[in-house]
Task: inverse folding
């Protein structure tokens, strides 16, 4: 996996909304803070652009394969070439051939893990990365890649050892540090989390996506001076990017604004939404600006859209309570209050389930509870990963087999579910 793909995963680990990425410290101008609950894994984008040299490379690799049909490295290169074009079927077949011809080769399992992850086959990806780490536990690139993926699918207790080892081996690797930071905040180590993020800041990374992840973390930590420094770099690189506009607006809200300054900040969120209407956080902060300007009718429309798009966006219900009260709508204020309390209780329950899963990392029942929580929230990638891990703890566990099969069916992986149900 290239560093760009890994960086995208780290950014995902600090972005998003809903029960699987809950918000704390309910202050209207506060940005969402990182959470112990993972964001859903984003599958590979549809309709990829096929690289111009893809066909030529395939022809060359096929010729090499004819000369050395059992060479695992050729199969690995073929799998990665298919991955460049997001052609997952033949890519996975090539990766599986590499493993078949070299069952003791960590690189073959690493390639299989990468393709499985990109294709959205979380249970297979976790199994392949675990096998690779067993064979090559000291490989730095593998430690970072596997650790970040484990964290992304909610298996933080699997992610922590390889990422800690990577940081110990390469303390100047900002990607490894930010990957470890995601695990630390998820596992409830806030002080070490903040120290780790600041270590990444001190390295002054230049990559825009790493800068975005770093700025998001610093804002969540309320380290506004460092956040401002990073955001200024992002503005020089991509001043009109909607995600950067969102960061700038969040920073300025945190810094405190006079009434005269609010319209300019509100305009930042409006510009971000004009480019990407699905930026729920931008819409939430737009509603906050409208509230602070006293335009409660507009704030009502904006924040009601937030909870319509993301019903688990707990902060939006909290702000709607104030909006309805200001508008004299007691009925809707009571509904929003009940919904806020219900979402808060669901968050507490989810936290308890996930903390138990982390404490009892080798207990099948604890893992199944975490997987079912993910399934209830339609986070199929996480459910597949957790159920697959639970089944690996006890291959004879009928409940784990049944739960994984259910998750696979809901993900449209009917053949995989049938093979699993048949015990294959």
Result:
């Amino acid at each position: 996996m290239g560093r760009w793909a890994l960086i995208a995963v780290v950014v995902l680990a600090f972005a998003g909304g809903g029960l699987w990425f809950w918000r704390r410290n309910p202050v209207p101008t506060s940005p969402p803070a990182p959470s112990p609950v993972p964001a859903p894994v984003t599958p590979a984008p549809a309709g990829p652009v096929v690289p111009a040299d893809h066909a030529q490379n395939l022809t060359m690799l096929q010729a090499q394969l004819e000369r050395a049909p059992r060479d695992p490295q050729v199969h690995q290169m073929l799998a990665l070439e298919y991955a460049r074009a997001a052609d997952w079927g033949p890519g996975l077949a090539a990766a599986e051939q590499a493993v078949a011809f070299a069952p003791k080769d960590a690189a073959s399992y690493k390639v299989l893990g990468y393709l499985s992850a990109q294709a959205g086959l979380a249970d297979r990806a976790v199994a392949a990365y675990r096998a690779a780490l067993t064979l090559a536990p000291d490989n730095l690139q593998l430690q970072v890649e596997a650790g970040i993926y484990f964290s992304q699918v909610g298996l933080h207790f699997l992610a922590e050892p390889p990422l800690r080892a990577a940081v110990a081996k390469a303390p100047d690797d900002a990607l490894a540090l930010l990957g470890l930071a995601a695990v630390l905040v998820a596992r409830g180590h806030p002080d070490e989390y903040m120290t780790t993020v600041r270590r990444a800041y001190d390295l002054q990374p230049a990559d825009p996506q790493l800068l975005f992840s770093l700025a998001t973390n610093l804002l969540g930590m309320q380290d506004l001076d460092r956040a401002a420094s990073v955001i200024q770099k992002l503005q020089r690189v991509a001043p009109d990017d909607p995600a950067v506009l969102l960061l700038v607006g969040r920073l300025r809200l945190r810094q405190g604004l006079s009434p005269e300054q609010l319209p300019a900040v509100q305009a930042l969120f409006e510009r971000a939404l004009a480019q990407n209407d699905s930026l729920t956080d931008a819409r939430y902060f737009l509603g906050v600006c409208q509230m602070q300007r006293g335009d409660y009718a507009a704030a009502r429309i904006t924040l009601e859209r937030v909870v319509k798009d993301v019903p688990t966006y707990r902060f939006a219900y909290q702000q709607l309570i104030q909006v309805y009260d200001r508008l004299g709508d007691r009925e809707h204020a009571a509904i929003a209050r009940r919904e806020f309390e219900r979402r808060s209780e669901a968050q507490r329950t989810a936290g308890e389930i996930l903390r138990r899963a982390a404490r009892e990392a080798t207990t099948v029942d604890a893992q199944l509870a975490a997987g079912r929580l993910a399934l209830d929230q339609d986070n199929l990638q996480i459910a597949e990963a957790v159920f697959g891990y639970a089944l690996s703890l006890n291959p004879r566990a009928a409940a784990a087999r049944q739960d994984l099969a259910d998750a696979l069916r809901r993900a449209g992986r009917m053949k995989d579910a049938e093979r699993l149900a048949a015990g294959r």
Q: What stands out?
A: The first helix runs from residue 3 to 13. Residues 360-424 form a domain with the Serine Threonine Protein Phosphatase 5, Tetratricopeptide repeat fold (CATH 1.25.40.10). The CA atoms of residues 185 and 193 lie 6 Å apart. Confidence is low (pLDDT under 50) at residues 7-46.
